[in-house]
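tool_call: predict_structure(chain=1)
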Amino acid sequence: MDTLSSGATLNRLPVHVRDELTDVDRLHAIWTRYRHGQPQEERTAALRALIRRRVRDWGGGPALEELVVSTSEDGMSGQPVTVDYVEDLGRRAAALPADCRHRSPGPLGTAGAGRLAGAAAVHAHPVVRAAHVYAECVEVLRGLRAAESDGPGAGTGGAPSDDDPPWALPWILTSLVLQRADHPPLLPDPRCFPPPSEERDPAARFAELVHHFARLVTSALRDELCWAPASVPPPRAHISPLASVTCRRVQDYVRSRRGSLALILQALDPGATTTVRTGGSDDAPEDAAPAPAARTVLTPGAAHWWTSLELVVGDASLTLFVVVQEVGCPTTGVLAVTADARLTTPEGVRDALDMSGAESVTVMPSDCVDDRWPQIRDLVDEAVSRAMNVLTRV
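tool_result:
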């Protein structure tokens, strides 16, 4: 299906959002080719374990786990999103335990369910349709909350709001819409909620929401490609030209940031130091990547190459890793660029970035480095900014 020939809604989106939807389609095509060779039972068990872990991280209990698991099975790709089905999901979301903050304020009713079923049938790119359903569901739940408590109601066009509780139903319906279009389920993640929008124009707010969900769907597809059964082959010794050039560009850029960072840190502590190191999966065992770099590897056993920036001020040290890695097993040609950092102080060691998978950069096999370099550079800049903010506040 040529999902980009989907009418006026898509044509009104900004160019960068349309480009992201094209990336979703390209990655989806790669995922479709590779998923059929994976053992189904192991995949299903791994998905259920991931769902339960994500729901627990989200602060949900067993009832919410069962609700999300039941709507994330492989058979959901053929589930019609009818008024009756949506109304039933609404009842189940409203029947979650009273102490569950993800519980809906009340049943949807036939009118609300009809509105959401209609949104799920809109002719548009799957990500556009999913964002539309999410926005509509948030609006419906706001209306129910207003009717129940005379609190803030609808009227913001589905734009994320700090007043909105972390309702489960919008995520569940959004995931169902994507599964109907043969995409993997979109699992809730406390770091992946759409940020509140400052846009006044409804079209601009909706474009921001589509952009956000495009990043989330790209991350979900990449995670699916990264999944591997327990037994995986060792990484290949050969590095592809695309990976090689990407690694070199990352290394050069991190080194270019070192001087300015050293000046800032030495103003705080004349003895402050900055050190850049590089390595990868093809190193000797004694030179293997430290744990913070190794834990960012998405596919077990995949080839990866890291650049680290170590910043030391007084008794505190922060090590930032930028990792370029192959995605999928067998190799799909897709690369991911991820960042992670650990802060070490006399009180112990803790994470310093809190970056979600949607903030990583996916490099397609047909890309050249220049195609992705603005995104990779922005990722490194954001990681350095967060790292410096954490370190200078110690």
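agent: The beta strands are 273-280, 304-313, 316-327, 334-345, 348-351, 361-363. Proceeding to next step.
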